[in-house]
Specification:
mainly alpha; about 75% helix; about 0% strand; rod-shaped
Length: about 80
């Protein structure tokens, strides 16, 4: 009883695909934050540097915060 080689291989592949998908999503959100001009961030009272640093240092948690926290009229 236990996990065989085939099952372990499937788990590794699924984990790899999910990891790649999360990384691509994180990268897309980071690029989106960096493409918005800093003047537009300042005009809405938001800090571009804060969001970008949160995404870099907190990783997925910072990116989830970037997506969930409302950003008035940035895009």
């Amino acid at each position: 009883m236990g996990i065989g080689v085939a099952e372990l291989g499937i788990i590794v592949i699924v984990f790899g695909v999910i990891s790649i998908a999360v990384f691509v999503w994180w990268l897309m959100m980071l690029i989106e934050a960096l493409r918005i001009p800093s003047g537009r961030w300042t005009a809405t009272g938001q800090s571009q540097i804060l969001y970008v640093l949160a995404m870099i240092f907190l990783g997925i948690i910072g990116t989830i915060l970037y997506v969930l926290i409302p950003r008035k009229q940035l895009t």
